[in-house]
UniProtKB/TrEMBL annotation:
It comes from Callithrix jacchus (White-tufted-ear marmoset). The keyword NAD applies. Pfam families: NAD_binding_1 (PF00175). It comes from the Eukaryota. One of its GO terms (cellular component) is mitochondrion. The keyword NAD applies. Keywords: NAD, Oxidoreductase. Gene3D superfamilies: Nucleotide-binding domain of ferredoxin-NADP reductase (FNR) module, Translation factors. SUPFAM superfamilies: Ferredoxin reductase-like, C-terminal NADP-linked domain (SSF52343), Riboflavin synthase domain-like (SSF63380). The gene is OXNAD1. GO terms for molecular function: oxidoreductase activity. CDD domains: FNR_like. This is Oxidoreductase NAD-binding domain-containing protein 1. Residues 49-163 form the FAD-binding FR-type domain.
């Protein structure tokens, strides 16, 4: 694919992208306010993101953003790289954004899959959106182009944001389908913390990280290369087990060592229970309910079980 690039000091677009000056991202205050209020008022279906998350804490900042990269992550999922205009915009690994689209009356809700470090260093966040008939997802897949302007606001109570003085914890991440998105953000943040440790910087000392990730087939396992790159970078700290439930084609030699044909089992999760371990679960509600209940039945404290239900 041919792509053009405009270099911006301190910024890099890594997904075949065109980026423009941050100044061009600014929406007028009145336009941004109108976009926000109109979208909220018209988001009325019970399945809509705004209604499902009405009681969830959000940050006050609504920032303009510009699409500076896009890629197909699977036959049904498209990733977007967004350049964020507001310098005060921030998020914690695992959180999502309200996604406001000019001309679309419904507000989207998409988990951030990049690490907070990418935003700090390059003023960008990454989203991965599954194709559905919901208007925001349709817009992402059918109408969104490079330089499209949107607005975003951070929300969510599902996150990993350890402070330097906190006790070291192991992480077990359990993902189903596109539920990998917030867990990939947490995994990438954990890798950043490990790099800090390796560089002997003062900061949080994280334990081990284990990812269990299930999808229909290998083509629907998102960000495979990114995940395996982290496993290879930190072989003593990061491990992953990938699962496919309806595989019909041959599995590549590169993936085979990590792949199990079938579902994630209770025993595999139970083997990782310890008093130092935090569990993060994101996937279809039946999967989320099953594993959170099994962990409770195995006497894992509720405060160590974190889950996100998106569907």
């Amino acid at each position: 694919m041919a792509c053009a690039a405009v270099m911006i000091p301190g910024l890099r677009c890594s997904v075949g992208a065109v980026c423009t000056q941050g100044a061009s991202l600014r929406l007028t205050f009145s336009a941004l306010r109108h976009l926000t209020l109109t979208s909220i008022m018209k988001s009325k279906r019970k399945t809509d993101h705004m209604e499902r998350t009405a009681s969830v804490i959000r940050r006050e900042i609504v920032s303009a953003a510009k699409v500076c990269g896009a890629a197909s992550e699977s036959p049904s999922v498209k990733s977007l790289l967004l350049l964020i205009a507001d310098q005060d915009f921030s998020f914690k690994a695992g959180q999502w954004v309200d996604f406001f689209i000019p001309g679309v009356s419904v507000v989207g809700g998409f988990s951030i899959c990049s690490s907070p470090r990418l935003l700090e260093q390059e003023r960008m966040i990454e989203l991965a959106v599954k194709y559905t008939n919901h208007p925001p997802a349709l817009w992402v897949h059918n109408k969104c182009t490079l330089d499209s302007e949107v607005a975003v606001r951070v929300g969510g109570e599902f996150f990993f944001d350890p402070q330097p003085a906190e006790a070291s914890r192991n992480l077990v991440l359990i993902a189903g389908g596109v539920g990998i998105n917030p867990l990939l953000s947490i995994l990438r943040h954990a890798a950043d913390l490990l790099r800090e440790q390796a560089n002997k910087e003062h900061g949080y000392e994280i334990g081990t990280i284990k990812l269990f990730y299930s999808a229909k087939n290998t083509s629907e396992l998102l960000f495979k290369k990114n995940i395996l790159d982290l496993v290879n970078e930190f072989p003593e700290k990061i491990a992953c087990s990938l699962y496919v439930t309806k595989q019909t084609t041959q599995i590549s030699a590169e993936l085979k060592p990590y792949i199990t044909e079938g579902r994630i089992t209770e025993k595999e999760i139970r083997d990782h229970i310890s008093k130092e371990t935090l569990f993060y679960i994101c996937g279809p509600p039946p999967m989320t309910d099953f594993f959170s209940k099994q962990l409770e039945n195995n006497h894992v404290p509720k405060e160590h079980i974190n889950f996100e239900k998106w569907w």
